[in-house]
């Protein structure tokens, strides 16, 4: 089994739960267009880019909008979402995440962010987590959405390690596929039913350590 030299983390749903803020902003947009948008509908937007999310929203509502309107609505949704994340505090870091980061640092393991979010830096600053990351790759650095592995491959490259030496942490199916497509091992955060392509799955980081990760990946 290849040595683990680096860990690459998705942001939303792994380090922090910003999904609720995305949901509120998308729901508000859908309501403005005259249809409802449920939490179940929102599951389809996980790990998907902003413009693709809008396309899915339009499919759900059966609406057809020109490109200019789409861009305006995507910007409006982002403005509303930003209002929420600018009020975030370190209390919103998911349980066990910080302890796990500290465990990795103590063992000399490099840490990168691999997120489709264009607001990743703002969120990390609000959470006071920026200093934990040796490399940050977000939606402003990549052009291909997951399951394309671009975001994770860039993270590995910035850290100076081969994909085989990197472990990705993901909560979305498309993200797990992106890790595998990039030749990396993947720990799923969430439900084994949804993330069944991951090397192994845990519900979250509480009580999770480097040793837990190693033993889970070596099964």
Could you please describe the fold and organization of this structure?
The chain is an alpha/beta fold and 219 residues long. It has two domains: 6-17 and 90-217, HAD superfamily/HAD-like (Rossmann fold, 3-Layer(aba) Sandwich); 19-85, Orthogonal Bundle (DNA polymerase, domain 1), CATH 1.10.150.240. 43% of the residues lie in helices and 11% in strands. The protein is built from nine helices and six strands; from the N terminus they run βαααααβαβαβαββα. Strands 3-2-1-4-5-6 form a six-stranded parallel β-sheet, sandwiched between helices. β2 (110-114), α6 and β3 (135-137) form a beta-alpha-beta unit. The termini are close together.
Measured between the Cα atoms of the first and last residue, the distance is 11 Å
Return the string of H and E elements.
EHHHHHEHEHEHEEH
Strands, count = 6
Biggest β-sheet strands, sense, barrel:
6 strands, parallel
CATH class of the largest domain: Alpha Beta
The structural class is: alpha/beta
The CATH architecture of the largest domain: 3-Layer(aba) Sandwich
Can you tell me the number of structural domains?
A: 2
CATH T-level topology of the largest domain: Rossmann fold
Number of H- or I-type helical stretches: 9
The mean pLDDT is 95
Rg, Cα atoms, Å: 17 Å
- CATH superfamily placement of the largest domain: HAD superfamily/HAD-like
Give helix % range: 40-55%
**Outline, from the CA principal axes?**
globular
Beta-strand share of residues? 5-15%
Low-confidence stretches: none
How are the strands of the largest sheet arranged?
A: 3-2-1-4-5-6
Cofactor: Mg(2+)
Binding site for substrate: 10-12, 26, 45-50, 53, 77, 115-119, 146
Pfam family, one: Hydrolase
Active site: 10, 12
């Amino acid at each position: 089994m290849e040595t683990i030299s680096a860990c690459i983390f998705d942001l939303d749903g792994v380090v922090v739960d910003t999904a609720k803020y995305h949901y509120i902003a998308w729901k508000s947009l859908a309501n403005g267009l005259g249809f409802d948008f449920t939490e179940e509908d929102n599951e389809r937007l996980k790990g998907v880019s902003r413009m693709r999310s809008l396309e899915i929203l339009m499919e759900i509502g059966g609406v057809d909008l020109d490109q200019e309107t789409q861009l305006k609505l995507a910007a409006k949704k982002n403005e509303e979402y930003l209002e929420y994340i600018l009020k975030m505090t370190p209390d919103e870091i998911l349980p066990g995440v910080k302890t796990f980061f500290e465990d990795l640092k103590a063992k000399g393991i490099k840490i990168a962010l691999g997120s489709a979010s264009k607001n990743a830096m703002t969120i990390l600053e609000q959470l006071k987590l920026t200093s934990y990351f040796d490399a940050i790759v977000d939606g402003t650095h990549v052009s291909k959405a997951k399951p394309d592995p671009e975001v994770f491959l860039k993270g590995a490259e910035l850290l100076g390690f081969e994909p085989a030496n990197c472990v990705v942490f993901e909560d979305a199916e498309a993200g797990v596929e992106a890790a595998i497509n990039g030749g990396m091992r993947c720990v799923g955060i969430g439900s084994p039913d949804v993330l069944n392509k991951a090397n192994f799955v845990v519900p979250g980081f509480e009580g999770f350590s480097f040793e837990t990760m190693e033993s889970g990946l070596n099964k």
